[in-house]
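Recall the central idea of this unit: under ordinary conditions, the amino acid sequence of a chain determines the structure it adopts. In this exercise we apply that idea directly, starting from the sequence alone.
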Amino acid sequence: MYLQNKYSQWYCNIVDRAKSRALDGSFYTEKHHIVPRSLGGNNEKNNLVRLTGREHFICHWLLTKMTQGNAQHKMIYALRRMEHVSKYHQGSRYVTRITSKVFDRNKKQWAKLH
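Accordingly, the structure predicted from this sequence is:
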């Protein structure tokens, strides 16, 4: 399911850094499941970390690059889902635009799955 590649290392570095820092209330953060629930993760404290919005998006992008097979398909869906605004985020979830390269790659992967 998980590949041992540079993306896995980058993911672990972001998560490890987030675990060891204390952010004050001035930072916007989101809860992230280290092992995604769709891949068997749970809601226990040791599987949750607070990430900035940008880190959260990057981690989900990295998950598409560090998984394979059905797990990768699930992570592609999850990344695609982050593009959509939900009633909980009211249009302001991500103010940073994704690059055209990332968008194109994700769209192609999405189309292949359908």
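The helical segments are 6-19, 53-65, 69-82, 100-113.
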